Here is the input.
Amino acid sequence: MNVFRVLPHHIPITWRTKLRLILVILLCSHLTIVSACIKREDGIELAKAGISTANTMSAYYGSLQQDVIDIWEMEAFLDSLARQAVPVSEQERLLMKEINRERVKTIDSLNRRILLTHALAEAYNSLLALSSYNAAESVKQSAGNLEKALTGIPDFPGSSVIASGLFSQILSDLASLKQSGEIKKASEVLLVLIDKIHTLLDQETEAYLSIIKNRRAASQLILGKLIEKEQVLALPLIEKVPRSFGLSLVKKGEEAVKDQPLQTALIAVSNAQLERTVLLGDGATQNLKQTVKLLSDNHKRLQAKDRISLDSLLETLNTAQTYLGLIAKARAGNNPNGGTQQ
Amino acid sequence: MNVMINSSLHELEEQYFTLRANIDKILGQCTTDLQKQEVFAAYLQSRLNYFRGINCIFDQGNDQVKKLTNDLKAAKTEIDQQLADLRNIVKVLNVITAAVNIGTKLVALVA
Here is the structure.
């Protein structure tokens, strides 16, 4: 746009020059204001996406933690069936102790990651506060909450990706931000954290997937044994088929499945369910990783003063949430009244 | 996806899951309680190695890690061969114990 052309020609030349200058200044101010508004709006959207990502990650780690607990119980059951009356040797007792110590270590590690996601949500709350209004007090409070969430988080075992000191640094960086204009600085601080989390997820994906597979394999073994030992009713597994047509099975009194082909078919159905759970677990893992990657990409866009684009992020986040919901449902045992335990 | 197929954890997992799926069959071939205890101890050691593998990160670039991971993979093939014919339980037990010991050495590198 040529601003000089809009000035009427009857205005004297010296005045016209001055007016041109004023118009240029006004235009520049306007552009600066518009740019600041865009960043504020983007900051809000990015912060909200960050909070949702953190909450979904928390549910994911909670689901893995439950898997580890389930595996522990299933293996105790399988061990008991396998060894029958054979006495436990001292060596076995010691090994069991060590194994349980490792299980607790895994549960603790996952718990630390849950705390990490809470801290991440708090950090994004700070970004939200900074982006929403001049909220020095609110940011201070968020930083305070973050400090509380991080208190007592030890180093991450087996991983040097996220050093315990990193959080203190982020905390103090965030606490020092007091102005809404410091959205960029807050985003920069969060980018460091989100990139570290992405590296952590990358490094640990195999372990997460192994836990999911382990639960599936242990469940399959238990179900096979129960069916083989004629300890299950066919009804609960197959009754949902007629139920989906609005029909119900005739109950002739409770009787275990003894028919060999039916036993095989029951195992096939349950295997399909378990296989689906593994695929969902894998899908949740991959989509979460992609979400964190997209979060990082959007932080970089914000840093570069580009408009952020959250469509893909919200899609992968939604998929991860859906898969986690389905896993929780499957864990509740297809019970129509079953809880939504994660 | 940054999952390395045939990585150390994958091999520990393969060994442990195979032993767990076949423990009844193996124990069924044992003739004494002592043999059964030996089988069970090796099985539990394999489980311990697997959980230790979950709790640590292997440096896949490390030569020793690479060698032991390859050895573990080869040992799994031997276990599979033994599982196909369990009649010589002493041999089966030796193969399992040797394979589990490789896993123990591997996790000791990062413990």
Remarks:
- Chain A touches chain B through 39 residues (CB under 8 Å).
- The radius of gyration of chain A is 29 Å.
- Chain A has a mean pLDDT of 77.
- Residues 13-83 of chain A form the longest helix (71 residues).
